[in-house]
Specification:
Alpha-Beta Plaits, 4-stranded antiparallel β-sheet, about 50% strand
Length: about 200
């Protein structure tokens, strides 16, 4: 895996979905093999900076994107090891909406709704870590709604930034969790678990 710091220049502050589309151009591979997660660090009307975790080395192919730093990462993790972490995520739950039914079978449709209470959000993260790791401390550092347009449809993602410490239970499962990402909205910069040793 490769961890890169990327700068994207733009004419105006982009629609968040466009970050993901632009990052695709860093990889010379078919769409289904462009495995990456990203974390938006800062953005302005002229430039965005992101951290990118990818299964392939990022190669600049368009002038609007620069790879500022890049290193190969190999997670050497141990059971019982304690780590500091930061995660921007989209904690949600799925509910059945009785007002929305499919036309053919009259089945009740499901929809996703954001979790808004902090205790629900931390419980969501605890479930997502599952058998891989155990939360030691967890704080909600930031809540922000992200508005976007995709195929002429407007949408909103309720982002939450978690910070704290955790203890690894299963190193292999935890490594896979980092590579897969946590929760939905990965195309909008959610899901990348950033860690450091303490």
């Amino acid at each position: 895996m490769f961890l890169s710091r990327i700068a994207i220049t733009h004419q105006r502050k982009p629609n968040p979905y466009q970050w993901h589309q632009k990052l695709w151009t860093l990889f010379d591979a078919p769409n289904d093999s462009r495995a990456f997660l990203f974390h938006l660090e800062q953005t302005s009307t002229k430039q965005s900076q992101l951290l990118l975790l990818s299964s392939q080395e990022a190669i600049c192919q368009v002038p609007q994107i620069r790879v500022l730093q890049q290193k190969e990462v190999d997670y050497h993790l141990k059971s019982g090891q304690k780590l500091a972490f930061r995660l921007r995520a989209n904690p949600i739950k799925t509910i059945k909406d009785e007002r929305k039914r499919t036309n053919q079978k009259n089945e009740i449709k499901s929809c996703r709704v954001p979790l808004v209470r902090e205790d629900e959000q931390i419980a969501w993260l605890t479930r997502k870590l599952g058998p891989a790791a155990k939360l030691q401390e967890c704080f909600i550092q930031e809540k922000e709604n992200l508005y976007f347009r995709k195929k002429n449809r407007a949408g909103k993602i309720a982002q939450v930034t978690f910070e704290g410490t955790l203890e690894i239970i299963d190193p292999d499962e935890f490594t896979q969790l980092i590579l897969r990402g946590i929760g939905p909205a990965k195309a909008f910069g959610c899901g990348l678990l950033l860690i450091r040793r303490i």
